[in-house]
Amino acid sequence: MPQHSNVVVLVLENTNYADVVGNPSMPYMNGLIAQGGLATNYTANVHPSLPNYFVLTTGQTITNSNDYPGPANVDNVVRQLAAAGKTWKAYAESLPSVGYLGGDRYPYVKRHNPFVYFTDVLDNAANAARVVPFSQFASDLGGGLPNYAFVMPNNIHNGHDCPAGQFQCTQNEKLATVDGWLRQNIGPLVDSAQFKANGLLIVTYDEDAGSGGPNGGRIATVLVGPKVRPGFQSTTAYQHESVLKLTMNTLGVRQVPGGATTAPSMSEFFVP
Predict the structure, then answer these.
(1) Residue 83 belongs to some domain of the structure
(2) Domain assignment of residue 210, yes or no
């Protein structure tokens, strides 16, 4: 597994694989797919949202409900990154303030932010201060991103809800809004000197749109970075534990939380 100085994990919402890959409503996303690597046999773990976010950060579902109140006192990325001396931030779009640990403030929703459930954050003011509004991402990109960044667009920009001001919309209108957000906000990351030197971007979805597929459904997961094999498409069966394992291993974190320890490695995506 190659080592990276910066990893950005970006999670989008409730979209089937077939609605993303090759969709002309998502030209920027498909440009990332062409530039990087695509997991073609990747399924989310379960429905609904929150347990998938927990798998991405703890290696276990913890709950089967979006209404889970917490707290979650389990091994997680915060604990292991700190133990390894790595820096981290959770960037949640529309979060009301730095360190906000409360409930929904639409279009921010708590169930898409696993960090605010962890006792490592709830009981530690310094860690809580690392849960920040996404508006900090651009300034941190200019001044140096943390080793690990977890990005959560709000419910208007993650594909969950209709574009702002619309009460009804098509799926492609949602996806076009997501694509525009990615181009505007993630484009500068991919084009930055810091990222081109030694960065890795992972874009995935929490679950599919409820198509009846296995587990949480087949979803698109894309890896982009200077060490990723360009245009590579994997047929290996992966779930969210593998992304968690990848993020820890590629940052040099030896202890991997939960079920991610035995998850399939994603090393095939990288140039030997």
Answers:
(1) yes
(2) yes
